[in-house]
Amino acid sequence: MSKLYSKNDQRIKHQPAGQQEEMRYEKIHNVVFDDAQAASLAVAHEIADLITLKQSEGLPCVLGLATGSSPIKVYKELVRLHKEEGLSFKNVITFNLDEYYPMSKQDPQSYWHFMHKHLFDHIDINPANIHIPNGEIPKEQVREYCNQYEDKIQKAGGIDFQLLGIGRTGHIGFNEPGSNINSATRMVTLNKVTKTDAAETFGGYKNVPQKAITMGVGTVLSARRIVLLAWGINKAEIIEKTIEGDISTHIPATFLQEHNNTTFVIDQTAASNLTRFKTPWLVSDYDFKKNYDEITRAVVWLCDRLKKPILGLREEDYLENGLGNLLVEKSAYDMNIKIFNRIQRTITGWPGGKPNADDQYRPERELPHKKRVIIFSPHPDDDVISMGGTFDRLVEQGHEVHIAYQTSGSTAVADTEALRFVEVAHDMLLGKTDVSHLEEVIKILRNKKAGDKETLDVWKLKGNIRRHECYGATRYYNVPDENLHFLNLPFYETQAVEKQPIGEADIKIIEELIRRVKPHQIYAAGDLADPHGTHKVALDGIFAALERLKHEEYMKDCWVWLYRGAWHEWDIHEMEMVVPMTRDQVLRKRQAIFFHQSQKDGAMYMGSDMREFWQRAEERNADTAKRFRELGFAQYEAMEAFRRYFF
Ligand code: F6R
Prior knowledge:
- The chain is an alpha/beta fold.
- It has helices spanning 10-13, 17-22, 36-56, 72-85, 111-118, 142-155, 192-198, 217-221, 236-244, 268-271, 275-278, 292-306, 315-320, 332-344, 382-396, 415-429, 436-447, 456-476, 504-517, 534-549, 583-594, 613-630, and strands at residues 30-33, 61-65, 92-96, 98-101, 130-131, 161-164, 186-189, 211-214, 226-230, 262-267, 372-377, 400-405, 484-486, 521-525, 559-563, 577-581, 638-645.
- The strands form 3 sheets. Strands 1-10-9-6-2-3-5 form a 7-stranded parallel beta sheet. Strands 13-12-11-14-15-17-16 form a 7-stranded mixed beta sheet, with helices on both faces.
- α9 links the parallel β9 (226-230) and β10 (262-267).
- α12 (292-306) packs across α14, α16 (415-429) crosses α18 and α18 runs antiparallel to α21 (583-594).
- The protein is globular.
- The site of fructose -6-phosphate has 14 residues, from loops.
- It comes from Capnocytophaga catalasegens.
């Protein structure tokens, strides 16, 4: 089991010099784990060790606790340690960081509810030792209540171990930008970005409370040990700013640079913007080991930095920017040409392969001319949002294109949208047949509150709305209806926002479809930044099915291409097939996205970005084209990009 060691720990101080050199941009001690699971176990074990140590000394152990998605696995492990390994919480006193305001304890969105669900209901803590800011306090008593909260922390002896997450604004607790380093527990107003991030759990932005009660930055900093958790690509930017940037009230988490016993525990993706990972050649004598993905990354970075096209880079540009190692065996001239050609060859207007053309340097094979293709779309609109232009070309170039919609997408249809459809059906049928069932559904929808579990009827209705939006878009692209496959994978069909992990039943359904179609090409969403994780689970299902099928004869002729969902694009060095689009194709793609009407105008799960999906798609595809142009390639209107996956 990996352990975390604080800055004060001898083992950290005695790190090999090379590692310290690599970290010279970093102002906060951090440990990077392969994934959130391994990291969470290590953190849970540090907490467990502390509890046991304090027990052996006959002392209470005071924990400061956080909510949100980041600490869930830590709590899960603590519960396991209690149930299976006898870890007792009898000597534990807890203080939670924050609570929304106003907020009833019983509300499923409350942090009170969260903490009991994930931890307190499953351990032997004395309920009197649990402290969570109370969102039910009358407004005029809040100030006094907050002072008392601080007093209670003091009386308990101060916080021994403070667990933190970090918001994309750089908030810790709900200390939003502008918070003071000395701030104490108080009522605050939530930042717009924070509310956008919380919109998913609250079933829409407008339902997120305006305010919260939070421990202050000063309260957090007075803890004797602090561990901050961050997972995933959405945290990469703020982690980099917090660890490498200057201390600033605009990013309250940077105040942690002042604390002498803080560790950030992060996974590889959250760490990916740190200088030592993003541009490792800037921190050490970096050996590229002839890895051309890495070399391309470095050359593209150099072009971005110097605002030059690839063929315009000179020897001194490489030498003066830490990339001298690239010129040991090649001149700058040869290196430029090598990388230029490598990128140039990713561009093709023939995503299914070009008939009667030499395919040696093309991303796709020429044969067979007519390929069978499956586009896997995690939600009902990812196919057109993320690869609409390529989809359009594949059909137009005569390939047999199937689309597999992995989930119903019911979660993302607003009640008001569903109501509109039942009311239309009701008005049509009134006087012709019995409409009492429709009237019941109308009543349910009118009286529903945010967070109420969906009835099966409404869930199905919402799925149906999205299914017919799919027909609209695919008919527009001239795909026969029988090539649409609505998989309704069981992991998603929970009638709630929370989903199951991928299971046998899901994998079987995907496997069955691949067996039936015997595709030459599979397109799948390789986007792991989807805010509610559906893309990741959907992809896990495809990977598991491919693993099972890989020995089948027909699979030897099947290539898998990963596109990215609505949130991020591949970096240029990761792209292995890039499909340019004309202005007309961009407009056709927009039209196809428009068929997904339930997802227009403030759809429920916009994630952290308030632009509509068609806008994001257009801006992202135009941006890729712009980046190619800046690197010295031909000017296109827009481009979609793919990376090959080998199974
Ligand atoms: C929660 C809290 C917040 C969260 C932060 C990250 O008690 O105080 O600061 O830690 O918003 O949330 P997640 O972990 O959901 O990304």
